[in-house]
Amino acid sequence: MKITVVRRVVQVGMLALFCLPPLLAGWGLAGLFAGGDGEVATPAEGVFFGSLSSSSAAGVTLLDPLAALETMAASRSLLTAAALAGALLVAVVYGLVRGRAFCGWVCPVNLIGEGVDAMRRRVGIAVPERTVDRRAKIAVAAAVVATSALVGFPVFEAASPIGAVNKGLAFGGFAGAGTLAAIIIAELLVSRRVWCRALCPLGGVFQVLGRAGQVNVAIDHDACIHCDKCSEACPADPAILVPALAGEDDMVRAGDCMACGACVDACPASALRFRLGRSGRCHPHEYDRNCPFSPRGAAR
């Protein structure tokens, strides 16, 4: 089965997961009340409740790292022990897997962006591959935290397109809908995936965490036919594939990789695959036992 098919199921499933608590409590979606005049349960009383910014699962608080940093900056104080632990748990889990796996497998804005990207290609609208450096989103994340400290409230949470989809469907909180509309217009007319690639501050935080990720795309240089199908498919930024495709490395090492599997699915020669762990940087033709694609490494 194609990885992209599995990923779509996970993305839609995550949206449905956050919609379940209000529905199970007898409420409606988008903040609409579906019950009668009788007393109904509060969705927060269930095992799971919340949003992608902040949620509770079996009594465990989960908080996205950027929201945690914004909140601490805005309040000029530390979070409660439970909130700090929840933010660290999210950061560690995504950091160990692949920081931007959140973007590829969970974030609803990326799901919408990929749909818009496909629609733009289908109708023949041509836009530049990139107009802003992908590392700009790290600076955007730092600016968001600094601005939150200056104005006294979490600025990204007030305009987050992620919240416009996630909270909007579940609770009717559509703050950030304007940002989402601007992103869709930019995707169609300005530059391919410019928000997710270069501007999203949460993506910037996960990009930094992604440098330690253990789920990585590895390349078999002998199998690669250099057709560039993987570069055409990559939603993160084709530039992250360059060292591996050029034979300078045996894996995609950049923290921007979303572990989405689009490149793996697109490769007609099956030269790309997922691999657990991070090897030392190596050249495939070096006689190096630590390089899995060198003569000695392949013999192990």
From TrEMBL:
Residues 215-244, 248-277 form the 4Fe-4S ferredoxin-type domain. It comes from Adlercreutzia shanghongiae. The lineage of its organism: Bacteria, Bacillati, Actinomycetota, Coriobacteriia, Eggerthellales. Pfam families: Fer4_10 (PF13237), Fer4_5 (PF12801). Keywords: 4Fe-4S, Electron transport, Iron, Iron-sulfur, Membrane, Metal-binding, Transmembrane, Transmembrane helix, Transport. The chain crosses the membrane at residues 12-34, 78-97, 138-156, 168-190. This is 4Fe-4S binding protein. InterPro entries: 4Fe4S_Fe-S-bd, 4Fe4S_Fe_S_CS, Electron_Trans/Redox.
